[in-house]
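Lab manual, section 2.4: Encoding a predicted structure.

Procedure: take the sequence of the chain (337 residues), apply the prediction step described in section 2.3, and record the output as structure tokens. A sample record is shown.
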Amino acid sequence: MKVNASVFASLGALLILAAVVVTTCLFTVPEWEQAIITQFGEIQGEPITEAGLYFKLPWQNVERFDRRLLRWDGSQTTAITRDRRTINIDVTARWRISDARRFLETTRSISQADLRLNGIIEGAVRDEMAKFELFEVVRSSNRILDNSADGITLEVRDDEGNVITADDFATLGMSLPRLTVDASGRYAAGRPIVLENILAEARRRVEQVGLGIQIEDVMIKQLGYIREIEANVYAQMNAELNKIAAGFRSAGQERAEQRLGEMSRELAIIESSAIERAQRIRGQAEAEAIAIFADAFSRNPEFYDLVRSLEAFEKILGPNSQLIISTDSTLFNRLKR
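Recorded output:
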């Protein structure tokens, strides 16, 4: 029994020692990480960049760093373009740790790396913005000036199918300069070129400082004018939209007046045709009436003469009229009959 107890005690000690060795000397590196072994603050060997199980001494430490892309988001930067326009620009960048040994020696942490990148990228942005004019920073191509087929056109269609477009009245942007193009057809300026230059300058500065990181890309999140310029831009846009609206109203008024003129001409033609037809019918009726009167007169001239005389008396004599006539007058002879 005493032998068995000593054996169990030895096995237990061995197991404890093995557990200590496993927990303090063995470590794993996953796919998305890289590691550096340090001993009393000194780097031991090269960085471990492959995933797997590794061994270290108990008094050594393991510094781990992410191998994936990391995002940098700086604060809004105020820059001045070559044509002296002040703009507010907000950029973001993606970067990774390319040299874990140098990164540990110079930066040691992600937060410290972000602080170092603040000055590097923002400085590169300000320097590159000063090399381009505002339209070269904002636009990416000349497509908006070429009236491409996939552009958006504001238009109004009237009742007759005629199209009135905003291009007939718009003047804003008609004098915009074009982005320069080299002999091969590649743009020499524009937002993509500006971003390429910012990325190249930021990489140069990072390499010069030796941070052990690689900037993958730089992107503009937002670009805006300062308040003074922004108010002027909005006022200009508002005036241009009012001009376009006035143009649409004027064109509509012109079409309405043209339509009213056509309707007036059609109405005059209809009225003249109706008057002509009415006069023709009236003439035909009067001719028929004269023919009837002539026929009646020819059948009994004396009766017709009597009727005409009575009609004349009705017009001449009123209700309280007094008439003095001689016996040899025609009127007396009519009454005598």
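Check your result against the sample. The two ends are 183 Å apart (CA to CA).
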